[in-house]
Amino acid sequence: MHRIMPMYLVVNTSRSMAGRLVEVRNVLTALADELLESPVLGDRVRVSLVTFAEHARCVLPLSDLTELAELPVLSPGRETRFGPAFQLLARLTSADSATHLAAGMLFDRPLVLLVTDGVPADRGWREAFDHFYRQAHPRIILITVGVEQSQAREILDSVRISGIRMLGDSPDQPLAKQILADLMAYTDELVTSRAIGNWNTAGRQDFA
Asked: Taking the mean position of all CA atoms in its chain, how far away is CA 26?
């Protein structure tokens, strides 16, 4: 039975992230190149891009990047709200799982890379996260950009994550390169070992 590895790249597109949105598009291009180089990964990996600010949007439904003719256009919003993102993710993962299972495919536990340069401004987002987590049981990797450790702790204390990577807001930590590295580490390990491990705080995966 064909196995699908779903990845959801969830990116904060508030005003402060506007200058980094081109890097997100670069991630999709670079990941597509990597998948073309690996027939095994290209056959299994499907990627969705979700953006969020005051609202959340699925700008790329779960897709085979090797067949993507055009990259989505990303537009900045205003403030950072997590609630809409997790509400949308709950709907997307449920629908995507049902569609693939109905087609006779195995649908792996989804991987979510949550990229943000700020903490949520909305109340009630934790309830939205809890609903999403209970439903999808995702692996979540949090990537913060220029976020203070105390602010990151505010997020960590409220969500169940498999790992975190905290980036400084400097040229020597390019966002696209770090996101791609985490995505490829996950796919390579999963395909070669079929083991499910725990991500440590350095952004690497530890296996028993």
From this structure: 15
